[in-house]
Write a structure and sequence with these properties.
The chain is of the alpha/beta class. It has a single domain, classed as Rossmann fold, CATH 3.40.50. 30% of the residues lie in helices and 27% in strands. It contains eight helices and eight strands; from the N terminus they run E-E-E-E-E-H-H-E-H-H-H-H-E-H-E-H. Helix 4 packs across helix 5. The longest helix is centred in the middle third of the chain and has 15 residues. The protein is globular and about 50 Å long. The relative contact order is 0.18.
């Protein structure tokens, strides 16, 4: 089994769901960046045929500081073949959007769009990162939804619960890319913070490609807030 460590991994957000000012804790704590190291160990590798192609699903056991975390990657094709860098997406888990088809966000369509782009390209990796609700956890995300129902936007809701606007950290995802031997990627993302996290982790981003599916009217305010307050590069807004 392969173990990869990324010492002093970029930590623009603390992984987990402890709020900075009150709110509910999910068992993770905020720690200084210099003390954080991310490690992953490959523990499972199996075929995953889906409608878009013959993927493989790789299961990693990760450690971020003192916290253990499971993280998976879907891989297609030969990542070492000559040509342009493989397509890569780091996709944060969204139960409401991906399983139940919530119209409040574009997470489900983004996931399908990224997989389709990888399939059309013939090779690539989608890392499925369990950072529900931009890192605050499922139940806290539902609490944020309730605040949004009463007029808060997605950033204001997180902050009213005592969290950062975006509580995620991408150190484990960078460690997974290291484990897969990827030092150069074409990156499917609208989020400049993810691009910075890869570059700070030593991954060369050869190109950033938008992952911007059509979203309905119910998600428009959410996406506008991500563009205006979080700096997401959304051309359709």
């Amino acid at each position: 089994m392969q173990i990869v460590a990324v010492p002093d991994a970029p930590a623009n957000r603390r992984r987990g769901s402890s709020p900075e000012r009150g709110g509910l804790s999910c068992g993770f704590s905020i720690v200084p960046q210099q003390s954080i190291a991310a490690r992953v160990e490959l523990v499972a590798d199996a075929a995953l045929p889906i409608s878009l192609g013959e993927f493989r699903i790789l299961g990693f056991r990760g450690r971020f500081g003192d916290v253990e975390q499971e993280i998976i990657a879907l891989k297609l094709g030969d990542l070492e073949a000559p040509g342009p860098a493989p397509l890569v997406r780091i996709h944060s888990q969204c139960l409401t959007g991906e399983v139940f088809g919530s119209l409040r966000c574009d997470c489900g369509p983004q996931l399908q769009m990224a997989l389709r782009m990888i399939a059309e390209d013939g090779r690539g990796v989608l890392i499925y990162d369990p950072q529900e609700g931009r890192g605050i956890g499922l139940l806290n995300k539902l609490r944020a939804y309730a605040l949004q129902d009463n007029g808060a936007d997605t950033v204001e809701a997180n902050e009213q619960l005592g969290f950062a606007a975006d509580h995620r950290d991408y150190a484990l995802a960078v460690a997974v890319l290291e484990a897969l031997g990827l030092r150069r990627v074409r990156f499917l993302s609208n989020n400049p913070a993810k691009v910075s996290a890869l570059e700070e982790g030593g991954i060369e981003v050869e190109a950033r490609l938008p992952c911007e599916p059509s979203a309905g009217d119910r998600a428009a305010a959410y996406l506008r807030t991500k563009k205006e307050k979080l700096g997401h590069l959304l051309q359709g807004m």
